[in-house]
Amino acid sequence: MSHATYEIKDRVALITFQNPPVNGMSYALRKSLVVFVDQAEADSGVDAIVITGSARAFSGGADVTEFGTPKVLQQPILRVVIEVLENVTKPVVAAIDGVCLGGGLELALGAHYRVAAAHAQIGLPEVKLGLLPGAGGTQRLPRVVGLEKALHMITTGQIIKAKALADTALLDKVVETDVVDAAIAFAKEVVAQNLPLKRVRDIEISPEGAREILDAAREKLENGKKGQIAPLKCLDAVQASVFMSFDEGLKYERELFLQLMSSPESAAMRHIFSAERAATKIPDVPADTLLRKVEKVGVIGAGTMGGGISMNFLNVGIPVVLLEQKQEALDRGVATIRRNYENTMKKGRITAEQVEERMALLSTTLSYDDFADVDLAIEAVFENMDVKKAVFSELDRVMKKGAILASNTSTLDLNVIAGFTSRPEDVIGLHFFSPANVMKLLEIVRGEKTAKDVLATSIALGKKIGKKPVVSGVCDGFIGNRMLYAYRDAADNAMLAGASPSQIDKALENFGFAMGPYRVADLAGLDIGWAVRKRRAEANPEAYVPVVADRICEAGRFGQKTGAGWYKYEAGNRTPIVDPVVENIVREFREARGITPREVSDQEIVNRCVYALVNEGAKILEEGIALRASDIDVVYLNGYGFPAHRGGPMHYAQQVGLFNVVRAIKRFAAASEAEARFWQVSPLLEKHAESNEPLK
Ligand SMILES: C/C=C/C(=O)SCCNC(=O)CCNC(=O)[C@H](O)C(C)(C)COP(=O)(O)OP(=O)(O)OC[C@H]1O[C@@H](n2cnc3c(N)ncnc32)[C@H](O)[C@@H]1OP(=O)(O)O
């Protein structure tokens, strides 16, 4: 099987990669490349060689579908292909369009010249898969873009438009016209002028100032990505480009690459890469389902959530009409959106022109009648069924046939909401996470009657606005919040057993969570949860179980906004300070229940909290609320700060061993009646622990 084609155009051999969708550097492609390059070199009718991909992708890098298979290490490996390219006696020009990433860029760096389309996207994103560029990228990139830029690109995986790299030695020419034609013309020029065959490996790197740059980068990385090894290995490899010979550096890079390839971190990050893509495929929804068109969106509610939701669409050029009950609320909402854009502009991420373009796509209204021409309406109003009823009745009245009616509810029953309309098949849940313009997760809630094309359209739209969509069935809290409740309860149980809130936060932060649960609670505010608990207690006094958070709230401590919550805060400062008042509240709470505190290790805290996620996740899977275990990982990683290098709770459980997880849960359950009530093992989890079959 060949993954490339060969033709001769005007004495230039054109080798075109043919491995859709993104020309991953498969074994077949690598082999075809070497065969065709040899053919071109031997042909006296050929003066030069151009290698190219498609408009979508020069190459997305190593073929990730070959990871974990023997093919990935089968010769010729990419490093050898690059060596072949570099040593050809005729000029080799890479014609770059679309994405040129990872191994794709490493290959292009083996060519003698590179011509790119201005919009081509260039980068070495291996670190995002827990890897480093293992085919010379760490040695060649610094030679063409300089140490500092290369370090940043390689340790963060940043992708840069070709236009922005036009003044570096990475690109010889950047064009707005057809890149293959331009590369062929360029190759002919090289031949006509008898220009030298430039090899990136021959470029000297000056060690001057390198130490300072490397030390600063190391310090930043050590304080940044907690627990991740790949970024630091990337740095080690780049450092070798300065202080070792090219060949020694290449050998060292290979050593580090192989270490990372077999690391649990890379396994976890590669798992998430496939999981995020799998989550967008729904077994009973055909891939070729005709999508509904969404060219205008209506958003109801101009608060933080509605404003954030609107920004997602404005960002990709979709006009939004924002609806509120009062003009002042609209004015406030619009001002907040503008301020957010202006802050982004101040950080240099968008231009003033883009701010105005986006704001020009935003209109406002006080009347539902202005929703007559929108293709999708999303409500982000108060979480109350009566309010939702009023909103959806109005939407049903005004919206055109075929439009999609979406709710951003995080707790309410979507089937009931759909029942407020005469078209439940057009109703879906689009659950954004706050801040909605930033957070990547989008839970798409499929109601009993949601039409397949509404689901497919919502997934496609989610991808278009840069979200990670995951489909959830209807249940209280859907996938993410339902798991969050279990996680928080597990943290509270650890606290009752003897751990302090700050010990719990630290243990989970050391595990890799961005923030522990009590710091998150202080940031989000404790009053909303308290109000919900009070309402539930009034409605059903027998089921009410007091929690420490009630006592914290009774003391008027609602988190950062009141200067005190689980921690205290100095005015204008967000650094949490351990507060003896809280320690007293916790102590009294334990005493009232006759609990004698004991030493709880950090490991036990992590096990309790993470296994609570796993157990609830397994129940969610068992009930069919989530379609796959990996969907749960995507939710928890993108919505709740689960450490990426651990691959999500379900993947992590698999790594620990399901048998070990179930054993630990049973030991927690044996501690008391209350613990036994909480730790009811999911039968599905138990079955898989027994059979040793992975949860899928
Ligand atoms: C020694 C060398 C090591 C390496 O080179 S390691 C690999 C380095 N490369 C990367 O890390 C790039 C990974 N891929 C991406 O970042 C993105 O993807 C792209 C930017 C290439 C494309 O993004 P978008 O246009 O949003 O599409 P999409 O849904 O992410 O991907 C479309 C389809 O392309 C498959 N795919 C993506 N990259 C690769 C690859 N490198 N090898 C094989 N397939 C790939 C996906 O899985 C998916 O497939 P489906 O349509 O079936 O879901």
From TrEMBL:
Superkingdom of this protein's organism: Bacteria
Keywords per UniProt: Fatty acid metabolism, Isomerase, Lipid degradation, Lipid metabolism, Lyase, Multifunctional enzyme, Oxidoreductase, Peroxisome
Residue ranges constituting the 3-hydroxyacyl-CoA dehydrogenase C-terminal domain according to the UniProt record: 477-569, 605-693
PROSITE patterns: ENOYL_COA_HYDRATASE
Compartments, as annotated in UniProt: Peroxisome
Main location per the UniProt record: other
Family named by the database record: Belongs to the enoyl-CoA hydratase/isomerase family.
Protein name: Enoyl-CoA hydratase/isomerase family protein
Source organism: Advenella alkanexedens
